[in-house]
Automatic annotation (TrEMBL):
<comment type="similarity">
    <text>Belongs to the ornithine cyclodeaminase/mu-crystallin family.</text>
</comment>
<protein>
    <submittedName>
        <fullName>Ornithine cyclodeaminase</fullName>
        <ecNumber>4.3.1.12</ecNumber>
    </submittedName>
</protein>
<dbReference type="InterPro" id="IPR023401">
    <property type="entry name" value="ODC_N"/>
</dbReference>
<dbReference type="Pfam" id="PF02423">
    <property type="entry name" value="OCD_Mu_crystall"/>
</dbReference>
<dbReference type="InterPro" id="IPR003462">
    <property type="entry name" value="ODC_Mu_crystall"/>
</dbReference>
<dbReference type="InterPro" id="IPR036291">
    <property type="entry name" value="NAD(P)-bd_dom_sf"/>
</dbReference>
<keyword id="KW-0456">Lyase</keyword>
<dbReference type="GO" id="GO:0008473">
    <property type="term" value="F:ornithine cyclodeaminase activity"/>
</dbReference>
Length: 355
């Protein structure tokens, strides 16, 4: 990372929603997901160099607001993110987010950015990275239960990174599936609309569950999951919110990001605290094995972890260099004399900088 240079310390690169969309279209959706995925893999291989803490969550009956911080000792990053399932009915996003990178040596911000769209890309990239190590060899068919805002990103990530060629869609809201079918029509994927959970998962190599209701639900029952399948469970991500029947967990080899967080927020909150799980970073780093047989059921119990957002922010910081897809935000005070902040205010009044 580059430390801010004297003379422009007040300016912080800011990526707006408009510039984020322009950047994605310039790079390509699949290419950008693949780039974020590569950064995630690289950072997971140095997992032990990071500060690790479960996200700081503020829960209410309407939803949750969270802060997700981490640092590798040189760069600090955090994400603000909410999850309010009721928002969709009010014409609002279920999830919104923004994030920041800062130089640890000075504490000065290096990047400020929207992360609603970037989180969608990051989540899809993380899912596909996990499946790269856990899914059946030569997997081609993915079932996607829950066709909301994350659906298309997941489908494109698995196409780009894992080589799937067919996605089967189901949602209790047919309008959501209409949207996904339309958006994926020119993706190069074979898109199949199904009429039930059971029809959707039948014959799939990979099952992705991504529903939004903040409750303990049973999206998949035990009889729906067969030998050899990989489950990418990304909808259960806070206390009291799950998607899978407990019996599926007992039949599966479970892989997680950060156990102290996942045991509180993930599918495994249904199990005893000492139920064995494997940490995904150890698989990526070659310390432990992922998929070991054709009949093994693998489960990525994904709740999202701060290092993944850190990776996405690092990727973005590099990607915007030399482009027009950011604005310099006048965000930091930069007095001529560091100790004379009040004098800076007085001079601004005298020069007419403040009316």
């Amino acid at each position: 990372m580059t430390t801010p240079q004297k003379g422009n310390l007040n300016l912080v690169p800011f990526v707006s929603v408009d510039n984020m969309m322009k950047l994605i279209l310039s790079i390509g959706v699949e290419e950008m997901i693949a780039g974020i995925a590569a950064q995630i893999e690289s950072d997971f291989k140095r997992w032990e160099s990071f500060d690790k803490t479960a996200r700081v969550a503020s829960h209410s009956k309407e939803g949750v607001i969270e802060l997700m911080p981490t640092s590798d000792g040189e760069v600090y990053g955090f994400k603000y993110v909410n999850g309010h399932p009721k928002n969709t009915k009010e014409g609002l996003q279920t999830v919104t987010a923004f994030g920041l990178l800062a130089d640890v040596g000075t504490g000065y911000p290096l990047l400020f950015t929207e992360m609603t769209i970037l989180t969608a890309l990051r989540t899809a990239a993380m899912s596909a990275v996990a499946a790269k190590y856990l899914a059946p060899k030569d997997a081609k068919i993915m079932a996607m239960i829950g066709n909301g805002a994350q659906c298309e990103f997941q489908a494109l990530a698995f196409k780009a990174i894992c080589g799937i060629d067919t996605v089967r869609l189901y949602d209790i809201d047919p309008v959501a599936t209409d949207k996904a079918v339309f958006n994926l029509k020119d993706s190069g994927l074979t898109v199949i609309r199904t009429n039930s959970h059971q029809e959707c998962v039948s014959g799939a190599d990979i099952i992705t569950t991504c529903t939004a209701d903040k409750q303990c639900a049973t999206i998949l029952t035990d009889n729906m999951v067969g030998a050899g399948q990989h489950i990418n469970a990304i909808g259960g991500d806070c206390p009291g919110k799950t998607e899978l029947h407990k019996d599926i967990l007992l039949r599966s080899d479970i892989f997680v990001e950060y156990p102290p967080q996942t045991r509180v927020e993930g599918e495994i909150q249904q199990l005893k605290e000492d139920h064995p799980v494997k940490e995904l970073w150890k698989v990526i780093a070659g310390i432990e094995q992922g998929r070991t047989s054709d009949t093994q059921i693998t489960l990525f119990d994904s709740v999202g972890f701060a290092i993944e957002d850190f990776s996405a922010l690092r990727y973005l910081y590099s990607a915007i260099k030399g482009t027009e897809f950011f604005d310099n935000l006048d965000m930091l005070a930069d007095p001529d004399e560091p100790r004379d902040l009040y004098g800076m205010v007085r001079r601004a009044a005298k020069t007419g900088a403040v009316a």
